[in-house]
Amino acid sequence: MIKDILKILENDARTTTKQISTMTGTPSDEVVKLIKQAEKDRIILKYKTVINWDKVENEQVWALIEVKVTPQKDVGFDSIAERIYLFPQARSVYLLSGTYDLLVMVAGKTEHEVANFVSQKLAPIEEVQGTVTHFMLKRYKEDGEILEGKEEVKRQPVIL
Fold it and tell me: Which of 24, 36, 130, 140 has a CA-to-CA distance to 6 between 20 and 30 Å?
């Protein structure tokens, strides 16, 4: 039951508890209880809005930075990842397989701001062996939402 509720909220966080109740056949008070518990248990971490900033003329520069690091004894990559994800510029940090160890998604107002983050904050970390920065030139889809192109009418399925 909780998985169904989570999938509904992940698709549209604005779905009301009454709508979720109707869609899942779960009483509204039970839906509220399950959501509150999921928030308390940090299963639900955040309610998010996907914004196409290009349409609001508040452009941001996004970059994906591959980072090669030396893992630390007894903690591996976790300690280094924590140092990096505590920087406000780091929007997402992932552990990877392959040539590089971490992938850091960074947002800034200008390319220069992103470059300064890499050269002044990220590269000086002792365990960082090297970085490769990829600037995003255009976003087509984010979190399952197509940013440009044909708009679809999305409707929630009603389960009777």
Answer: 140
